[in-house]
Design brief:
Elements (H helix, E strand, L loop, with lengths): L2 H23 L3 E4 L6 E12 L12 E15 L2 E10 L2 E14 L2 E9 L5 H4 L28 E13 L2 E11 L2 E3 L2 E3 L13 E10 L8 E7 L1
Length: 228
C-alpha cells in the first residue's frame, strides 16, 4: 500500500469525525485564543454531489459525499497582522492563504505572502468555506484554480489595500503583484506555501477600485483589471 493510500486511510475517518461533531454542535466555531494569540475560526461543510455520466466524467463517482473543513486564523499585534486559511478535505489539504501584514495607517495595509487576487466581488468578500456564501457554490467564473476556475485566484507577493471614508461613502483601492499561478495540465497551479519553488510562475498584477454608498451594506460598484 502506498504512503498516499495510508495517509488517506488514516486522515479520512478523522476528518469525517471532526466535521460531523462541528456540524452538530458548532456550525461555525470562533475560538478566542488566550492572551494575544488571535482568533481561530472553523467552518465545517458536508458536501453531497451527484454527477451525471458523460464521456469526460467516466472516472468520477456518480455520487460523492465529501467532508470539508476550512480553518481560518487571524492575529493582530500593534501594527503587525497575520492571516492564514487552510482547507482540509479527503482529496485536498492545502494552505490557501498565508499573509503577513503591516497596518501603515488606520485604513492602509500592506500584505506579504500568498493572498486572494483582488479581482471581482467573490474573491475579496468570501473565503474557501461555504458557510457565509449567499449561494451553494461560487459562480463558475469565480471558481478557485483547483476547481477548474478560468482566472488566477491567488497571487504570492505584495498586496496594498487602502480605504477612504468620506461623507458616509467608502472608496477602496487594492493593488496586488507577485507570482501568479503556473499552467499545469490545463489547470492553474498557484504558488505552494510548502514548496514555493515548484513550477514556473509568471509575474501577475491586479488593480481594483470599489465604491460603496453605505459602508455597512454589501452593495458595491467597482472595476478591476489584471495581467498574468
Amino acid at each position: 500500500m502506498s504512503a498516499r493510500a495510508v495517509s488517506r486511510l488514516i486522515f479520512s475517518p478523522v476528518l469525517w469525525l471532526l466535521t460531523g461533531l462541528l456540524l452538530i454542535h458548532w456550525p461555525v466555531q470562533a475560538l478566542e485564543l488566550p492572551g494575544r494569540l488571535g482568533k481561530l475560526l472553523l467552518f465545517p461543510t458536508l458536501q453531497f454531489q451527484h454527477h451525471t455520466r458523460s464521456p469526460d466524467s467516466l472516472d468520477t463517482p456518480k455520487n460523492l459525499v465529501n467532508p470539508l473543513l476550512s480553518v481560518f486564523y487571524t492575529v493582530k499585534f500593534k501594527q503587525f497582522l497575520f492571516v492564514t486559511e487552510s482547507v482540509l478535505a479527503r482529496d485536498e489539504q492545502e494552505i490557501e492563504r498565508f499573509q503577513f501584514g503591516w497596518q501603515m495607517q488606520p485604513n492602509t495595509r500592506l500584505w506579504f505572502g500568498r493572498f486572494h487576487n483582488p479581482l471581482g466581488y467573490w474573491n475579496t468578500q468570501y473565503h474557501h468555506g461555504f458557510y457565509l456564501q449567499p449561494s451553494i457554490r461560487r459562480p463558475s467564473i469565480a471558481e478557485f484554480e483547483d476547481e477548474g476556475g478560468p482566472i488566477p485566484m491567488h497571487i504570492s507577493g505584495v498586496l496594498f489595500n487602502k480605504t477612504v471614508l468620506a461623507d458616509g461613502q467608502l472608496f477602496e483601492f487594492d493593488l496586488g503583484l507577485g507570482a501568479g499561478p503556473s499552467l499545469e495540465s490545463g489547470e492553474f497551479e498557484p504558488v505552494s506555501v510548502i514548496d514555493p519553488l515548484n513550477g514556473t510562475h509568471r509575474f501577475s498584477v491586479t488593480g481594483r477600485l470599489v465604491y460603496q454608498t453605505d459602508p455597512v451594506l454589501q452593495n458595491q460598484l467597482g472595476v478591476f483589471s489584471g495581467f498574468s
